[in-house]
Amino acid sequence: AKKITLPQCKEMKKQGKRLRMITAYDYPFARLVDESEIEIILVGDSLGMVVLGYDSTVPVTLDEMIHHSKPVVRGAPNTLIVADMPFGTYNVSKEDAIRNANRMLKESGIEAVKVEGGTRMAPTVRALVDAGIPVMGHIGLTPQTAAQLGGFKVQGKTEDAAQQLLEDALALEAAGAFSIVIECVPVGLARTITTSLSIPTIGIGAGPYCDGQVLVIQDLLGIYDRFVPKFVKQYAQTGPAIRAALGDYAREVADGVFPGPEHSFGMDDEMKGLY
Ligand code: KIV
Ligand code: NA
User: Fold this and answer.
1) What is the number of the ligand 1 atom nearest to the C-alpha of 23?
2) Which positions are annotated as active-site residues?
3) Is residue 130 part of a domain?
4) Is the C or the N end of the chain the one with fewer CB within 10 Å?
5) What pTM does this model have?
6) Binding site per annotation, positions for Mg(2+)
7) 270 belongs to a structural domain
8) How many domains does the chain contain in total?
9) Checking phi first, is residue 13 left (phi over 0); if not, alpha (psi -120 to 50) or beta?
């Protein structure tokens, strides 16, 4: 499929077509996503938890995001690639945010950045957009500031909190964001926000009425099993399959079963190239 443009994201919303987004953090997974019909790859700072083994997304650095964005860009030439600005790279000043986002675009080749936060972050989003950097917003449960929210909880459950989230979404749209991730909010609120905006909403734990959906690829594939949130659907159990394969390999080497003759070379084999 041909790479979707930023204006086409908005066009899809108008046409009632749902956007599909998935995370990737390396070349092989980026290639697999690129072969699918999924429109957008997010190089998420979930990288910190599902790939780098941190306990939260807070420690992820700009260099780590750039390091992992580069192979995704190489592996997915036909997919729109958005990357998270990590914590601490856009909360100091607008100038600092622009400088850091510039590095992400210039050094890795991604096309847009995602930043967490609503009304408070809107002036920074405006500054980034005015500097020529496309921005995806992210409201609701914002993992980088989960401690301030009282942990990993559903957001917008009181009338005041719901009203604030709607205002957050409107502020991000007015600031020039091209789409907004809505994470862990009740179905009805996500629907209200979605119908109140002309830019697409992309939900995770936000029900079926968003304009698109996103999942972490390790969650979808059943690889990351430290915990499985309610909003995750495991489309495959890859973790157990990998565990079984590693067990078979270990046993066969121990037993002298692998490598067999079909995986070994004789003196008279033609050595035209090993593959
Ligand atoms: O980092 C991430 O993977 C994300 C998505 C879950 C939206 O921000
Ligand atoms: Na993220």
Assistant:
1) 3
2) 183
3) yes
4) C
5) 0.96
6) 45, 84, 116
7) no
8) 1
9) alpha
